[in-house]
Amino acid sequence: MKDKIMSRWSTYDPFYIELADKKIVDIVITHHAHSRWISRVEGEQTKIEDICKFLWDKLKSGKIASYYRNEEDVYVIDDDLLMVVQFTEMENETDLTGKPVHRMIIITFLGFMSKTMELRDLRAYYSWLRHSRRMTLMKNSRKKR
Fold first, then answer.
1. Tens digit of pLDDT for each residue in 27-83?
2. Residue among 30, 67, 68, 72 at smallest CA distance from 51
3. How many alpha carbons lie under 13 Å from residue 97 in its C-beta half-sphere?
4. I need a surface site. Which of 20, 27, 75, 103 has the fewest CB within 10 A?
5. In which order are the strands placed within the sheet that holds 81-94?
6. Separation between Cα atoms, residue 23 and residue 100, nearest integer Å
7. Which residues on neighbouring strands pair with residue 109, listed in sequence order?
8. First and final C-alpha spacing in the chain
9. For residues 100 and 90, is the Cβ–Cβ distance under 8 A?
C-alpha cells in the first residue's frame, strides 16, 4: 500500500486504508466467503486474489461503508453488496504514530440488496429466519410423538 509519495522527500503515504476507526493493512477471505462470492456475487470461479483486488480498489475509493451506524460487522459495497467482516489487530505492527493496524477478515458475502429484498432490513430478516426455524423444529417434534 506504499504507493503514493508524500510532499516531503523520501517519505510515503501510510500503508493502511482507514475504514471507520480501523486502519486496514491486510484482507483475508475465508473459504466460506469465497464460496458465497461464487454463488451469490459472480456465477463463475473467481480467484481469491481477484476478490482482494476488488476489495482494495473499493477501500481506496471509499465505496465501502458500515451498514449499521453503531455496529462494525456488516458492511455494504457500492450501496448494494453486503458482507460480514471481522477485524483483528496485527501483532507487532503499528502505523507511524504507534497506533495498531488491523486485518480485515471477510466472513461471508450476503448478496445484493437490489436482488434480494430481505437484505434491506437484516435485523427483521434474521429474526424471521430464527422464528421460522423454531416453528419448523416445533412442528417436526410434534410429528414424532
1. 999 999 999 999 989 878 889 999 999 999 999 999 999 888 777 788 999 989 999
2. 30
3. 6
4. 20
5. 17-19, 22-29, 100-112, 81-94, 74-77, 64-66
6. 8
7. 83
8. 62
9. yes
| Cα–Cα distance measured from residue 128 to residue 134, given in angstroms and rounded to the nearest whole number | 10
pTM of structure: 0.73
Do 84 and 108 meet the contact criterion of CB atoms below 8 Å apart?
Answer: yes
Among 23, 29, 35, CA closest to 107: 29
Cell 419448523 maps to which residue? 136
Determine the Cα–Cα distance for residues 98 and 104; give it in Å rounded to an integer: 19
Contact of 125 with 119, CB cutoff 8 Å: yes
Q: How many CA atoms lie within 13 A of 129 on its CB side?
A: 8
CA 133 – CA 29 distance, rounded (Å): 29
Amino acid at 98: G
Looking at the chain, the number of H-run helices and the number of E-run strands are: 3, 6
